Every structure is written in structure tokens, then in C-alpha cells.
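Researcher: Last one for today. Full complex below.
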Amino acid sequence: DGGITQSPKYLFRKEGQNVTLSCEQNLNHDAMYWYRQDPGQGLRLIYYSQIVNDFQKGDIAEGYSVSREKKESFPLTVTSAQKNPTAFYLCASRPGPGNSPLHFGNGTRLTVT
Amino acid sequence: AQSVSQHNHHVILSEAASLELGCNYSYGGTVNLFWYVQYPGQHLQLLLKYFSGDPLVKGIKGFEAEFIKSKFSFNLRKPSVQWSDTAEYFCAVSTISSGSARQLTFGSGTQLTVLP
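Model: Here's the assembly. Have a good evening.
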């Protein structure tokens, strides 16, 4: 079955360490997105990529970095510069930058202590 | 920049009650509107969408939403809720941002709890 795989489901890190969250899709979608979900704040866009080797900052990109070396992969690195990294992170994709709805992964809950 | 407001953070209803979840957006241009749902332990999925045409759109599981352009609203409705409708509901708006790239802006979500 086609879909989006985020791993791991739960991730724990010490403060000051960088951590990379995985997102892989086999839907052949061009566009991929990273959102952060916090209680009462909904989903906020971190980074997005419309095509391989290209990505753009979203609304809350500070403290995060991404890469898009392959169409199916869009890893997100949470750096030590991110002040409040503990959150639920959602990866999504869609065929292109148009109107098609997003397909979401199951998310990764990151806890930094 | 566009914004989306969902004023009800938590709604609690009994089974068979009617549901209306509010969604208002601020953007003066053309928009596409979506409702997504996240059932407990599951990923976000599309409930319904509005692109153009009939402002009353029907989605899965008996849900519908009405786009009222003059009120910048896209409220979600269901005549009779079931316990299985317990979930978090997100309204989202798609617009043309800089660089002609359409992005989605999400509301803060409404947690619906249906009591059996």
C-alpha cells in the first residue's frame, strides 16, 4: 500500500543534541511538508519542498533544517538552536503544489529533556 | 498572511446531537477550503473540501460544510453525531502564497468528544 512512513514513532533526546526525523513516501508525490502540532495551536508549517533539491521555509523554520536529495525522502533535523523542540511532528505530501489534499504520516513525538 | 480561526477548542456532545464546528479565515483572495479529521491513534485524513461551485459540500461519514464567502466561514456540520465521531477536527485554507506556491494554513483544531 502506498503511504507516508515516519520513524520512529517516539524519540527521546537530551538537550543540546541534534536529532533527525525520517519521512519516506512511496506515493510518487512531488511536494512534501513538515508540520509541528502543539496542543491548542494546530499545525504549523516548518518547511516544505515542491521538488527534489529544492525546499522553502515555512512559518516556524528557525532551529530546523531539511534536505530533499531524493523524491521519496524529506528528513527533518531538529537542531540544538530550536528553543522548544518537544512536540509532535507530522510529515505530509501531495502530488504537486496545487489543490490536491495532503496525505499525512502517523507522526513522530519528540521529547527533549 | 492568511489565518484560520476555530473558536471551539473542545466540544462535548451526546450521541444523536447535532454538530456545528466553526471555521473562519482571513484572506481576501481566492481560497480553497478543507476539513481534516484525526481519529485517536490515526493519522490526519481529509474529511471534505471546497474548491468552487456549490458552496454546500458533502464529505465522508455524513459530514457537510457550507462556504459562506461574505462571512469568510466554512463551518462543519453533522445532523446526528455518533460515538465514533470522537476526534480532533482541523479546518484549513489554501491560498497562493509568494512564489505562486499554494500552502495550507491550519486552524488550531477542535476536539470533539461524543458521549455514548
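The interface with chain B takes residues 4, 35, 40-45, 48, 50, 56, 58, 90, 92, 97-99, 101-102, 104-107 of chain A (CB under 8 Å). Chain A has no helices and eleven strands.
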